[in-house]
Amino acid sequence: MATIREIARQAHVSPATVSRVLNGTAAVDPQTEARVLKVIRETGYRPNEVARSLSKRSSRIIGCIVPTIANPFFTELARAIEDESFRRGYKLILCNSDEDPAKEEAYIDMLERMNADGIIITTTHEDMDALIKACPIPMVILDRAPSQETAAYSVRADHYQGGRLATEHLVDCGCQNIVMMCGPQKYTSAAKRLQGYRDVCREKGLVPQEVDCDFDFADGLLKTDSLLRQFPDVDGILAANDVVALSVVKVLAAQKVPIPDQIQVVGFDNIYLSQLMTPALTTIGQPITAIGTMAAAIVADLVEGQAQPQKTRVLPVELVIRETSCLQNPEDKQ
Amino acid sequence: MATIREIARQAHVSPATVSRVLNGTAAVDPQTEARVLKVIRETGYRPNEVARSLSKRSSRIIGCIVPTIANPFFTELARAIEDESFRRGYKLILCNSDEDPAKEEAYIDMLERMNADGIIITTTHEDMDALIKACPIPMVILDRAPSQETAAYSVRADHYQGGRLATEHLVDCGCQNIVMMCGPQKYTSAAKRLQGYRDVCREKGLVPQEVDCDFDFADGLLKTDSLLRQFPDVDGILAANDVVALSVVKVLAAQKVPIPDQIQVVGFDNIYLSQLMTPALTTIGQPITAIGTMAAAIVADLVEGQAQPQKTRVLPVELVIRETSCLQNPEDKQ
DNA sequence: ATGGAGATTGAAAACGGTTTCAATCCATCC
DNA sequence: GGATGGATTGAAACCGTTTTCAATCTCCAT
């Protein structure tokens, strides 16, 4: 691989001049420029990105850390982030934390040492604030709410409203015995949804019934099973997310419980898959693409020194009614 | 961020010595070492990875390029690759080519310029051989077969055998009118499966019936629809992959076609999702984790200068029978 | 002719590590 | 007592860019 000095030698100029034509950082005589470009073209020279990063202390790399790429919600998010990053001229490094704070820290450390320009992270750390404070480069929090004081940048959907919408919908569908499968409460997203559920229950005079559940298939299967045993009269299930909802539907189908006739199910996220399942899933839709795009745009702006006026962006959710729930007809009501 | 020279100054040694204790590349006096380590600990010094890469012309980064992270097959593969890479001390950069050869080349270019140590790629390039030849760093081809001459490293499942197994299974299930939804024939994986299908058809005296289909949900929905119109008597569908099979099942369910009673379906890949669908999918299982682990192990070995004796690894597939197919009972046979 | 101003250019110093090479020190061996 | 040799160490070059700073050149107004 040729170096810039080699190009300079062949074009009878200094490396500085080659750098200038490469980056357009200063005017160079058109004739000289043509000569340099010719040599570059002929040799197929490509500047070494590492040397460039070292010199500029910037790599045009954005790191993205998610709990797990196995959840389609995060891969769809990552796709949106990548698209926007790419559009703005950044490369994206996608990292899996496996919900392991240590691995998460290791990746942050790695990214900083690679001169990454920014980090977009859905942290699983209990102490989000410490993380943010310790990070010397722009960071935006995805899908989680940092505590007020840190005033970190964050983009997320309105999970509280989502919890409310889902619960209200099940009530509208005639459910009397709604059980919520709560995601891990250390995540603000899960906590907010639960809060929305509880508030609606109180308003409607229902007693909240809750089951803890991780955000994955395996635990979804397990917890659905125990849920059915613990609450034999359940007629509505609010799944922790779509992936869990899929497990719920799976277990119900295996037990020949008719959906939505006996039990109605609502998911959360509206991943692409939710419309392809059989039956198609009623769910709370997050604007996944908008969240990802916005997060990437914010880091890019920060990297380029454009201060963002608004630090916290909470995007609206929407109820998407499909086949796992059924609005009660007025005449059915006694 | 402190530099190595700063540490050297504080520890009253030269940068060379600090480097030596950091890397263990040469013996240093225990007392000196202790002094250096103390300073490192106190300052929280972390070596700059970029400078290190530049100097060593190696970054301990492995690039992984897949067509799309939206297909769970590739995310599961990526997870396995990441785990093995991580275990061997490499970072993984995951890139989406979107099945766009230009984007693919751009990523390869980027990786080379970042001093990536190796590349694992599921290429969508028609001319795989040119790609491989042009790449100055270790590369292993995933899920595709390079042409004999290049003798590039590759890891893949036995797609031909998979095509055969699936077809034979449908025949065993009593299907007389099997239609294959072929993936894009420019991919050797799709071509091999088709070949397996055709061979079994010939052996069994069936006439092959084929429909072209991309490897994604959207096209799966579209092509299932046209398939049903084109072949009204179809009683067995061989989907291009599990993702397409999911679409097939979706369309059949929407049209109230009973599965497997009227039409039986077999997928390909055995992604995690296939067991969670309703009905659970009969499919040809690829050893996804083994493929990923092996690919990562091979690049790592190559990077570390251990020549691999065997360039091509073809791993076995297996038939996984679930609910979308039904073996014919002997007594049912007339 | 002279003095700037502005346009081009190159030398050299970064950036923050690693590595080669030679120097120094000290113990050991004839 | 001097030669030998191994263990430690540091100076300096190097990796391949960018960037600062000063030098040179050109052109034009005075």
Overview of this protein structure:
The structure is a homodimer of 334-residue chains. Chain A has 334 residues and is of the alpha/beta class. Chain A has three domains: 4-47, 434 Repressor (Amino-terminal Domain) (Orthogonal Bundle), CATH 1.10.260.40; 59-157 and 288-315, Response regulator (Rossmann fold, 3-Layer(aba) Sandwich); 159-286 and 319-332, Response regulator (Rossmann fold, 3-Layer(aba) Sandwich). In chain A, 45% of the residues lie in helices and 16% in strands. Chain A contains twelve helices and twelve strands. In chain A, the strands form two sheets. In chain A, strands 2-1-3-4-5-11 form a six-stranded parallel beta sheet, with helices on both faces. In chain A, helix 5 (72-87) crosses helix 12 (288-303) and helix 10 (217-230) crosses helix 11 (242-254). The longest helix of chain A is centred in the middle third of the chain and has 17 residues, at 188-204. Chain A is elongated. The relative contact order of chain A is 0.12. The interface between A and B is large, with 40 and 40 residues. Chain B binds a DNA duplex (30 and 30 nucleotides) through residues 3-5, 13-20, 22-23, 25-29, 32, 47-57.
Low-confidence stretches of chain A: none
The most extensive interface between chains reads: A-B, 40 and 40 residues
Quote the beta fraction of chain A.
15-25%
Q: What can be said about the biggest beta sheet of chain A?
A: 6 strands, parallel
What is the CATH topology assignment of the largest domain in chain A? Rossmann fold
Shape call of chain A: elongated
Q: Could you tell me the radius of gyration of chain A in angstroms?
A: 26 Å
Question: For this structure, what is the CATH class of the largest domain in chain A?
Answer: Alpha Beta
Counting DSSP E segments of at least 2 residues, the number of strands of chain A comes to: 12
Please, what is the CATH homologous superfamily of the largest domain in chain A? Response regulator
Helical percent range of chain A? 40-55%
Q: Indicate the structural class of chain A.
A: alpha/beta
User: Gap between N and C termini of chain A, in Å?
Assistant: 81 Å
Number of domains of chain A: 3
* Element pattern of chain A in H and E: HHHHEHEHEHEEHEHEHEHEEHEE
Order of strands in the sheet with most strands of chain A:
2-1-3-4-5-11
